[in-house]
């Protein structure tokens, strides 16, 4: 009996050691976040082991586990009509609220889900629930884009999927089919979906053949650049749950079908060192010392290598492709962007991506709302369903929907 108690005590201590992570005092639901992070780490480590043994790609296994867990949940709605369709070869899920008396046309949001260009789906309960609530709260038609994922495809295919689906929806006859007002359409997305939404919006703004364009863009903690992995938020939050810095770098490598051996060089900004000529023209577009307010810069210092590795850009030119890194777009493109909402979280490596994009858009003359949350973390907006329900998720979702309701 004593041996059993000793073993149980040791197991409890090891579990506590694995779960516990020092977090900023402002983070909401800290213990729940630690448990979520511990679960993520355990699952990811298992998937990487399977990858290492060459049994399957770790992202394929991770998506399988996400779908398996998701089957335990049931998210439905009697009021919202949910259908699957194909827009120019791209699968989408459409959420339609019931028609109201004397109402002719509805507003609409094209939504692009997150997941590092590799995980989740428009059909998973987390995004199904978000889009259903958006449809109900806004009385709007929501188009949730089911773009193809890594490792099935890599950049630029995710971008092309999102662009094709959006352009198809913006056709007058398609909008008429769904009774959508052409002048009241937004494009939106979270995390990697925010990246795709921003890139698609930039591309649409330059398309001279389009007669209908989005009225708004709404980006939720978007990932917008792979130029500098040592911005203050990357330094401050390098070990934060859900999206530590090394995980974000690996997502970029997977998106570009690159080599994991480059991860350390990317982490210390060798790919954008002063002697890398391809990066020189972009440096001024991502100078966080001038784009960030002092409250975000704090006492962090830029990490700029004098001598780096130009061959990284030669091997992965997409690191400087604005379709993948919208923050590097030229001012002429930014001037064409619609009214913009950007939600950022203090405890997120991507915080400064969103803040810098907001500043660059403002400098280009675009009306921008920067909605910053001091107590929230990356990915929180979709975590509103038990057992991953967070007060931060409800808080950010309500603020996001409120802005859309007031501006769309």
From TrEMBL:
<keyword id="KW-1133">Transmembrane helix</keyword>
<feature type="domain" description="Alpha/beta hydrolase fold-3">
    <location>
        <begin position="109"/>
        <end position="266"/>
    </location>
</feature>
<dbReference type="InterPro" id="IPR017157">
    <property type="entry name" value="Arylacetamide_deacetylase"/>
</dbReference>
<feature type="domain" description="Alpha/beta hydrolase fold-3">
    <location>
        <begin position="321"/>
        <end position="381"/>
    </location>
</feature>
<keyword id="KW-0325">Glycoprotein</keyword>
<keyword id="KW-0735">Signal-anchor</keyword>
<keyword id="KW-0442">Lipid degradation</keyword>
<feature type="active site">
    <location>
        <position position="378"/>
    </location>
</feature>
<dbReference type="InterPro" id="IPR013094">
    <property type="entry name" value="AB_hydrolase_3"/>
</dbReference>
<protein>
    <recommendedName>
        <fullName>Neutral cholesterol ester hydrolase 1</fullName>
        <ecNumber>3.1.1.71</ecNumber>
    </recommendedName>
</protein>
<feature type="active site">
    <location>
        <position position="348"/>
    </location>
</feature>
<dbReference type="GO" id="GO:0005886">
    <property type="term" value="C:plasma membrane"/>
</dbReference>
<keyword id="KW-0812">Transmembrane</keyword>
<comment type="similarity">
    <text>Belongs to the 'GDXG' lipolytic enzyme family.</text>
</comment>
<keyword id="KW-0443">Lipid metabolism</keyword>
<dbReference type="InterPro" id="IPR033140">
    <property type="entry name" value="Lipase_GDXG_put_SER_AS"/>
</dbReference>
<dbReference type="Pfam" id="PF07859">
    <property type="entry name" value="Abhydrolase_3"/>
</dbReference>
<keyword id="KW-0378">Hydrolase</keyword>
<feature type="active site">
    <location>
        <position position="191"/>
    </location>
</feature>
<keyword id="KW-0256">Endoplasmic reticulum</keyword>
<dbReference type="InterPro" id="IPR029058">
    <property type="entry name" value="AB_hydrolase_fold"/>
</dbReference>
<dbReference type="GO" id="GO:0016042">
    <property type="term" value="P:lipid catabolic process"/>
</dbReference>
<dbReference type="GO" id="GO:0047378">
    <property type="term" value="F:acetylalkylglycerol acetylhydrolase activity"/>
</dbReference>
<keyword id="KW-0492">Microsome</keyword>
<keyword id="KW-1003">Cell membrane</keyword>
<keyword id="KW-0472">Membrane</keyword>
<dbReference type="InterPro" id="IPR050300">
    <property type="entry name" value="GDXG_lipolytic_enzyme"/>
</dbReference>
